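Researcher: I'd like a candidate sequence for this fold, 300 residues long. If you have to choose between options at a position, lean toward the conservative one.
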């Protein structure tokens, strides 16, 4: 309600365009709701602006804003660049994203499961083609990416398909390995092994002053992290599997897995203590929303 009131008293006018009429006004009350395909809508909008002779004026008045965006991009690149080169063990999340980006060909399909790895790919992945990155939105069911990668490969058999899935998400539906062998579906699973339900763990650590409950995977005496050897689990299913702990080895392992053109599992150890850089806020009532860790809220 607070957000709606702020919007109502703001000079901003909101136009919401969506192909699904049920989505219009779902989060904010728009001044104008338009049910349309966004590509068609934008083409018609640009054509009308051109017809009215407003294109030149719009470009001129928008230049200061574009310069501010360019400055923000430069700040962001300077902020994230150092972590991409880190040859650490376990791996930094940024380096995993960079290697996947560098190895996957342009026509590859990336399938992300629900989990903290999804946050990293949302921030760092640079999309190259439409419909080439599949995500678990909506209810964000864990295990979606583990299983959905099979469907993606069946739908696009000539495109490499790589599923990046958390260790928690993979253990929701590991039986897909049997299906992959039975029907010879060549999908690569990169298991983001951080020994935790990392997304929930981070949500607990923030509001509850560094405390967590049942979100880290450890031995019974809590003395050390525990997970099964996922590469050995893959081999038990008749699938090639490798375990990678050092960032310097990950790119070559992924190249090998894709070139094999058969089901393949990479058990990738990722540092759970490196948190995603927050550039926005996620309000979870009754908890107060945090300020972003990078930048500051933009207010007109």
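Model: Candidate sequence:
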């Amino acid at each position: 309600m607070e957000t709606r009131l702020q919007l109502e008293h703001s000079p901003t006018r909101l136009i919401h365009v969506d192909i699904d009429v049920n989505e219009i006004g779902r989060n904010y009350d728009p001044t104008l709701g338009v049910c349309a395909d966004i590509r068609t809508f934008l083409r018609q909008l640009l054509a009308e602006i051109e017809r009215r002779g407003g294109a030149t004026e719009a470009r001129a008045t928008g230049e200061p804003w574009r310069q501010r965006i360019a400055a923000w991009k430069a700040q962001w690149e300077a902020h994230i660049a150092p972590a991409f080169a880190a040859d650490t063990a376990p791996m930094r999340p940024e380096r995993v994203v960079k290697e996947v980006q560098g190895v996957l060909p342009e026509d590859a399909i990336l399938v992300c499961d629900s989990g903290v790895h999804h946050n990293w790919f949302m921030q760092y992945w640079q999309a190259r083609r439409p419909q080439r990155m599949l995500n678990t939105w909506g209810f964000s069911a864990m295990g979606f990416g583990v299983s959905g990668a099979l469907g993606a490969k069946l739908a696009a058999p000539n495109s490499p398909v790589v599923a990046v899935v958390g260790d928690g998400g993979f253990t929701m539906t590991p039986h897909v390995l049997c299906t992959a062998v039975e029907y010879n579906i060549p999908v690569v699973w990169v298991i983001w092994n951080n020994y935790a339900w990392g997304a929930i763990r981070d949500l607990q650590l923030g509001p509850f002053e560094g405390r967590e409950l049942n979100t880290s995977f450890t031995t019974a005496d809590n003395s050390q992290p525990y997970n099964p050897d996922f590469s050995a689990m893959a081999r038990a299913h008749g699938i090639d599997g490798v375990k990678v702990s050092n960032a310097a080895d990950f790119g070559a392992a992924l190249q090998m897995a894709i070139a094999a053109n058969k089901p393949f599992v990479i058990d990738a150890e990722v540092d759970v203590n490196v948190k995603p850089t927050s550039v926005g806020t996620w309000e979870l009532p009754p908890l107060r929303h945090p300020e972003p860790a990078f930048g500051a809220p933009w207010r007109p």
